[in-house]
TrEMBL record:
The keyword Kinase does not apply. Keywords: Cell membrane, Membrane, Transmembrane, Transmembrane helix. Residues 28-146 form the TraD/TraG TraM recognition site domain. InterPro entries: P-loop_NTPase, T4SS-coupling_protein, TraG-D_C. This is TraD/TraG TraM recognition site domain-containing protein. GO terms for cellular component: plasma membrane. Pfam families: TraG-D_C (PF12696). It is a multi-pass membrane protein.
């Protein structure tokens, strides 16, 4: 049912953008698709995510691991991932996610020095210098990453290794239901006060 709702939502928004606003919505619409693996497969989502951005629509896909995306969308999973400009890793232990992330982060160059000291009838001393490459963050380091850290990748920019944001320190935190249950959105109250939303065109 949820996947059907999202299908109708994207189709409706795209139609309104094309027919009423010359292909671009006047107000950007961001869809936060939490627990994306549990809402079922959205038909043709691999094509939708490639076309909605030009209409001022974006989607944030939230998953426990990349394996969840592959299990639902099969061969189209890479297309969906490729159309996401931003990747935020909050931690995890799923092997394919760690492997892919480690490869994308690339390698770093390290300098190594080896010394040798030979003693006998004549003493000799040697120094060997090498440049070697290793993963910027190996899979085991990613798996053991501190829970307060995250890795952010933005297209065209080098990855960021950063602290997670403490939302309780934000001045707007008191407006959330996490702070006070009274702030929880009541859809029934909203509809009774403002009425049902009206659309000029329904698909």
């Amino acid at each position: 049912m949820v996947s059907i709702m999202y299908t109708q939502l994207f189709n409706l928004l795209c139609t309104i953008a094309d027919d009423e606003y010359h292909g671009k919505l006047p107000v950007h619409v961001r869809c936060i698709l939490d627990e994306f693996a549990n809402i079922g497969q959205i038909p043709k989502f691999d094509k939708l995510i490639a076309t909605i951005r030009s209409r001022e629509i974006s989607a944030s896909i939230i998953l426990q691991s990349k394996a969840q995306l592959k299990s639902i969308y099969k061969d189209n999973a890479e297309t969906i991932e490729g159309n996401c400009d931003t990747f935020l890793f909050l931690g995890g232990k799923e092997k394919s996610t760690l492997k892919d992330l480690s490869e994308v982060l690339g390698k770093e160059t390290i300098d190594t020095y080896n010394t040798s000291d030979t003693r006998g009838t004549s003493q000799s001393y040697g120094l060997n210098y090498q440049k070697l490459g290793r993963e910027l963050m190996s899979q085991d380091r990613l798996a053991l990453m501190d829970g307060g850290k995250c890795i952010l990748q933005v297209r065209g920019v080098r990855p960021f290794f950063s602290d997670k944001v403490d939302i309780t320190a934000n001045e707007m935190y008191k407006e959330l239901s996490d702070f006070d249950k009274k702030n929880q959105f009541d859809i029934e109250k909203y509809v009774s006060e403002y009425g049902k939303p009206k659309f000029s065109k329904i698909i």
